[in-house]
């Protein structure tokens, strides 16, 4: 009995379960039968060179792109059959699509709060909390387009977390900012993970790969390695994730 409870618990802890997930565009296979699990509260780094298939895989996991084959369960919902439920339980932030530059900080929070189904009261209290936490009091009525990139990214992450999702998917969230601002961004990720949110993040910065609990490395649509940064370094007999990445992703 104890064993079954324990096995059950281990099973429950996988908040993302991916089985042979595949995406073909015509005759080109962008994601080639990938399988892996992500545990609740984990910071999972999803790495790969440009064009490896990361964004395509994320789009399937957040329920906006139908897989050609395979399946995935995200926050207990099937990405093929229950895509709308998946969307309600996750947050998403990408470098390319985040906030509206021509809306103010406050307007962006109100807008996305509405999209995520928060009540006016919830939006009001969340936005007060968020503006305070990010020290945005001075600029809450400024257009987001006028903010430095690092501020925009922190705000975009907080907005993706407005509805307290179980998992947040971050596609290159820190592109183009300096190491200190990236470090501050990662402190936000650690805090969210500590509070139980699962973080699924892609990055091209190998120092960030070192901060992840586990890392997968995708090469030409396939996952070629998956483990903790320390285990990967041991496996490839190197000192840094940068060297692991170069050995694997760059051939
Ligand atoms: N809608 C599409 N139609 C055809 N090919 C596509 C489509 N979307 C992506 N691809 C191709 O699939 C491959 C994987 O693209 P994807 O954007 O998933 O890679 P990525 O690992 O996220 O790369 P990057 O780090 O540059 O964002 C690329 O060769 C891309 O050109």
Structure overview:
- The chain is α/β, with parallel strands linked by helices and 251 residues long.
- The chain has a single domain (14-248), classed as Rossmann fold (3-Layer(aba) Sandwich), CATH 3.40.50.300.
- The chain has ten helices and ten strands.
- The strands form two sheets. The chain has a six-stranded mixed β-sheet with strand order 6-7-8-3-9-10, sandwiched between helices. Strands 2-1-4-5 form a four-stranded antiparallel β-sheet.
- The N and C termini lie far apart (48 Å).
- The model has no long low-confidence stretch (mean pLDDT 90).
The top-level CATH class is Alpha Beta
At the fold tier of CATH, the topology name is Rossmann fold
Describe the global form: globular
* Low-confidence blocks of residues: none
Tell me the number of strands.
10
Distance between the first and last residues' Cα: 48 Å
Order of helices and strands, N to C? HEEEHEEHEHHHEHEHEEHH
Tell me the domain tally: 1
Report the average pLDDT across residues: 90
How are the SSEs placed, and which strands pair?
Elements lengths: L1 H11 L1 E12 L2 E12 L3 E6 L5 H8 L7 E6 L2 E2 L4 H7 E5 L10 H11 L4 H14 L15 H12 L6 E5 L7 H16 L3 E5 L3 H6 L2 E6 L2 E6 L1 H7 L5 H8 L3
Parallel strand pairs: 3-8, 3-9, 6-7, 7-8
Antiparallel strand pairs: 1-2, 1-4, 4-5, 9-10
Helix pairs in contact: 4-5
Bound molecules: adenosine-5'-triphosphate.
